[in-house]
Specification:
Strand content of chain B: over 45%
Oligomer: heterodimer
Largest sheet of chain A: 6 strands, mixed
Number of helices of chain B: 0
Low-confidence stretches of chain A: none
Strand content of chain A: over 45%
Largest interface: A-B, 24 and 25 residues
Number of strands of chain A: 11
Structural class of chain A: mainly beta
Number of helices of chain A: 0
Helix content of chain A: under 10%
Low-confidence stretches of chain B: none
Largest sheet of chain B: 7 strands, mixed
Shape of chain A: globular
Chain lengths: 112, 116
């Protein structure tokens, strides 16, 4: 079992729809959770970080964390073609470890 | 100017050659990382460094070595390149965690390496 697993893609949604990206992790001691967006051929860039159970909203993006279920998700409301990219889930253990484990990513395509 | 730079951006080399990829940052971060990314896959950690005197192996360190020449510079070497090291390589930096919160990582633009 991989340490960080993301729902297999590709995921395709129409413009204006809600895109839902999911991630599960195996290390119960994980404390920090990140979503990065990566356009084809480019470097990852941070979209959201979340550290506590519940929802965290930033514009059209909402991250949801459930530590009991070892599950973190990213919702993109009113999806735009510019949201088409690969989304990487990253999970950190305790701060002394300080390094992220990445999932393989989910590729999202938003169709006009 | 970019905060995290990598050189070269593209490199073609032959099997058995030694090559070095360089990373520099102006963010003032103590922590630096080297990842590789294969098509359709996430990022695999090669080496990481939490300060100039600290070097740690990641998931896939075999065949690689690193040098942390200064706080701002972290280089990755392939001692004897082989074709399955063909990949996209990213350098990243992060600040030292404060208050128990792990900091996000900032990535360089990547180096595309082809080993023939």
């Amino acid at each position: 079992q991989k340490e960080v697993e993301q729902n297999s893609g590709p995921l395709s949604v129409p413009e204006g729809a809600i895109a839902s990206l999911n991630c599960t992790y195996s290390d119960r001691g994980s404390q920090s959770f990140f979503w990065y967006r990566q356009y084809s051929g480019k470097s990852p860039e941070l979209i959201m970080s979340i550290y506590s159970n519940g929802d965290k909203e930033d514009g059209r993006f909402t991250a949801q964390l459930n530590k009991a279920s070892q599950y973190v998700s990213l919702l993109i409301r009113d999806s735009q073609p510019s949201d088409s990219a690969t989304y990487l889930c990253a999970v950190n253990g305790n701060t002394n470890a300080g390094k992220s484990t990445f999932g393989d990513g989910t590729t999202l395509t938003v169709k006009p | 100017d970019a905060d995290v730079t990598q050189t070269p951006r593209n490199r073609i080399t032959k099997t058995g050659k030694r090559i070095m990829l360089e990373c520099s940052q102006t963010k003032g971060h103590d922590r630096m990382y080297w990842y590789r990314q294969d098509p359709g896959l996430g990022l695999q950690l090669i080496y990481y460094s939490f300060d100039v005197k600290d070097i740690n192996k990641g998931e896939i360190s075999d065949g690689y070595s690193v040098s942390r020449q200064a706080q701002a510079k972290f280089s990755l070497s392939l001692e004897s390149a082989i074709p399955n090291q063909t990949a996209l390589y990213f350098c990243a930096t992060s600040d030292t965690p404060m208050g128990g919160v792990t900091e996000t990582q900032y990535f360089g633009p990547g180096t595309r390496l082809l080993v023939l």
